[in-house]
Amino acid sequence: MYDGQEFLRDNRWCLSRRALLTGAGAVGAAGLLSACGAGDSPAGQAAATPGSVLASTADVPVGGGTVTGGVLVVQPEAGTFKAYDATCPHQGVRVGVPRDGVITCPAHNSTFAVSDGSRQGGPATNGLTEIPIRVDNTTITRA
Question: In whole angstroms, what is the distance from residue 40 CA to residue 115 CA?
Answer without folding.
Answer: 27
